[in-house]
Amino acid sequence: MRRLPGIHESPAFIYTIKEEYIMPKFKTKRAAAKRFKKTATGGLKRMKAYKSHILTKKSAKRKRNLRKATMTVAANSKVMKKIIPYL
After folding, report:
1. What domains, with CATH codes, occur in the chain?
2. Using one digit for the tens of pLDDT, what is the confidence trace for 22-68?
């Protein structure tokens, strides 16, 4: 019976055990990090959609309001904290 090497037998795992256990790092989703900014109170700020093309039929008031930033919905905050852990 041949034994396959598991995760606990890999050289990287053994090396970290000898030194000290290193906590895993989370990767930030770069696409999300470019689109959201954190406010002083901890909320997430985003820009509004529908402002990139087909602007001739939209009124000036509508386009002016689309320029403003807005806050993300609170229901998405748990998901957003996972994809942008260090923001």
Report:
1. 7-83 (4.10.410.60)
2. 888 889 999 999 999 999 998 999 999 999 999 999 999 999 999 99
Which amino acid appears at position 10 of this protein? S
How far apart, in whole angstroms, are the C-alpha atoms of residue 37 and residue 44?
A: 6
Q: Where are the beta strands (DSSP E) in 1-87?
A: 37-38, 44-47, 69-71
Output the CA–CA distances (angstroms, integers) from residue 43 to 8, 39, 72, 84, in the order listed: 40, 5, 8, 12
Under the banding of pLDDT at 50, 70 and 90, the label for residue 87 is confident
